[in-house]
């Protein structure tokens, strides 16, 4: 580089300049040369190095190189190259101006720090996308770990940038943060609690992407479409999206329908209220009532209904009488758990149960308000 400096000075003198003008023109030319070299190194990486690396990774059978050397990661890595070029050339360009050199060194170091963080975040995002299949434990752990890792990396980068600006060691600055930890805990209280709650959700296997959940304290009633350490997104069945804090789910309560979805059927518990005065003995002379005949007939119907899973509990039972009549509860599990089919099948069964009551002379309780 010294040869280039001497050559530039010779060209300037050949142009008829002398004295202090040589210094200023030389610095201007050198700055332009440094900018040109930094830009050229960046373009070289983007237009030549990235295509070559992508071509190599496509030919390999392993998957880890596709994760670590994909296009977003390589583009982020290219952003560091100009900082390296400028960092090496600054002492040569501004050796006569130490104050300017120091200021530019700090700016370059800040840029290099930000570019490095951008590269690390790109790698972390690639690791997030590397796990296929929603709802798996491995994916949830990976997303949680990557989210926490991003927070740590950004926090360290902020400390390094501040240390560069004030000209102190990052270790010294980190040691000084111990005295202000109480203030930081107060300021970032919600964020820290959200991070802890998000880790608890995933580590305890309480929730997965794709689960159908109901949160009583909110209007969330639908499928989980996204989870991270600070938010849980739920798409309701009307296609609205509700964002719920993990701390709300951990400290409160929510209903996860995953067990029902994985089981052999979806439970049904329905009550039918009968007028007690309509319960009578049958005409056969035996001590048998029309209610017992009705219950037996209804159980036979449920047993032979292909829509009902008979391998799971099913029964027609009598409950304690109330002022509104005698409750008969139908308890069974429908095989088809999909919402629309479930409601249609259930409606057909209940309509049959209501209609069957008339066959045995039973009257379903119905309140008629006074006119």
From TrEMBL:
<feature type="transmembrane region" description="Helical">
    <location>
        <begin position="103"/>
        <end position="124"/>
    </location>
</feature>
<dbReference type="InterPro" id="IPR030192">
    <property type="entry name" value="YbdG"/>
</dbReference>
<keyword id="KW-1133">Transmembrane helix</keyword>
<dbReference type="GO" id="GO:0071470">
    <property type="term" value="P:cellular response to osmotic stress"/>
</dbReference>
<feature type="domain" description="Mechanosensitive ion channel MscS">
    <location>
        <begin position="190"/>
        <end position="258"/>
    </location>
</feature>
<dbReference type="Pfam" id="PF00924">
    <property type="entry name" value="MS_channel_2nd"/>
</dbReference>
<dbReference type="InterPro" id="IPR006685">
    <property type="entry name" value="MscS_channel_2nd"/>
</dbReference>
<dbReference type="InterPro" id="IPR023408">
    <property type="entry name" value="MscS_beta-dom_sf"/>
</dbReference>
<feature type="transmembrane region" description="Helical">
    <location>
        <begin position="145"/>
        <end position="165"/>
    </location>
</feature>
<feature type="transmembrane region" description="Helical">
    <location>
        <begin position="73"/>
        <end position="97"/>
    </location>
</feature>
<keyword id="KW-0812">Transmembrane</keyword>
<feature type="transmembrane region" description="Helical">
    <location>
        <begin position="21"/>
        <end position="42"/>
    </location>
</feature>
<dbReference type="GO" id="GO:0008381">
    <property type="term" value="F:mechanosensitive monoatomic ion channel activity"/>
</dbReference>
<protein>
    <submittedName>
        <fullName>Transporter, small conductance mechanosensitive ion channel MscS family protein</fullName>
    </submittedName>
</protein>
<keyword id="KW-0472">Membrane</keyword>
<feature type="transmembrane region" description="Helical">
    <location>
        <begin position="171"/>
        <end position="188"/>
    </location>
</feature>
<dbReference type="GO" id="GO:0005886">
    <property type="term" value="C:plasma membrane"/>
</dbReference>
<dbReference type="InterPro" id="IPR010920">
    <property type="entry name" value="LSM_dom_sf"/>
</dbReference>
